[in-house]
Design goal:
There is one protein chain. The chain is mainly α and 287 residues long. Helices cover 77% and strands 0% of the residues. The chain is built from 14 helices and no strands. Helix 12 (205-229) runs antiparallel to helix 13.
């Protein structure tokens, strides 16, 4: 029993790649801080954090559950918890229900509007894993889902959904779609052999880099548009420049002829980007 008490938490944390929460959570905080042009209450920040953890855990667990068969046929993913038998499907279903419960508890501590809107992201979580079976646009669906982080946090604190929140959401959506397109290069051959859809499988490697670059240009554009719509200071604009510079550096690490550093570009730099921009926004609203 003691062994299980230690083993299962580690397995579930690995299942949902809990450490990757660093990608989306800072943007939820950015939405929250910009919504009030200052520091939200401790209660709001705690419940936004809990909601994000519950939502992301639900989304990742559903993805792993629905894609278990696909993952088992892919050498890159065959070692994941479900394909290798470390976790059973019923255990992951229970984890999904628990994550949904955590999400809903947090939602009902926040502004009334999110109590009506919560089914939208949950439905989007369920749809996403199936899209790769039908369309290469799945990358953009994933981006749109992650783009709900600043939008949802803004609504959860102010009970409103203004244009500024959607501009931030669009920036996140294109940011995530851009690096997800590059990440799909890992499975290019497998996707083609098994009839799965992605930008690399449909259009090839060179076009993949073009799409990713255009997405990340759009990210900077939407961050700038959000800045124009808001009464932000110089530190926000320095943050936008920092994001642009980091994205430029990220793209310098890989090319259609050399994808050996794709892991570094995807995992390391995207965490740096989200945290860096959050720190600039934090400094801007408190100074």
């Amino acid at each position: 029993m003691a062994d299980a008490a230690l083993r299962y938490p580690k397995l579930f944390l690995s299942l949902v790649k809990f450490e990757h929460t660093i990608f989306a959570l800072p943007f939820a905080y950015i939405g929250a801080f910009l919504a009030v042009d200052g520091v939200p209450s401790a209660s709001d920040l705690v419940w936004v954090t809990v909601a994000m953890i519950g939502a992301r855990s639900l989304a990742m667990a559903l993805n792993r559950l629905i894609d278990a068969g696909i993952d088992a046929r892919n050498p890159r993913t065959a070692g994941r918890e479900l394909p290798r038998g470390a976790l059973r499907s019923w255990q992951v279903v229970l984890f999904c229900l628990g994550s949904l419960a955590v999400f809903l508890v947090a939602v009902y501590q926040l502004a009334p509007i999110v109590r009506w809107l919560w089914p939208i992201p949950v439905a989007a979580f369920v749809v996403y894993p199936y899209l790769k079976r039908a369309t290469w646009l799945s990358h953009f669906w994933l981006g749109a889902v992650d783009g709900l982080a600043p939008v949802g946090a803004w609504a959860a604190i102010t009970n409103e959904l203004p244009l500024e929140a959607w501009l931030l959401g669009a920036a996140v959506a294109f940011w995530v779609a851009g690096f997800d397109v590059l990440y799909a290069l890992f499975d290019l051959q497998h996707d083609r052999e098994h009839g799965l859809h992605s930008v690399p499988a449909r259009f090839g490697i060179r076009a993949t880099f073009t799409v990713a670059r255009l997405c990340h240009i759009a990210t900077v554009v939407f961050l700038a548009l959000a800045g124009f719509a808001l009464s932000v200071g110089i530190l926000y604009w320095l943050g936008v420049l920092a994001v642009a510079g980091l994205l430029l550096y990220e793209h310098s690490l890989v090319s259609p002829r050399d994808t050996t550093r794709l892991d570094m570009a995807f995992f390391t730099m995207n965490g740096v980007i989200s945290v860096t921009f959050f720190l600039f926004v934090l400094a801007d609203v408190v100074v």
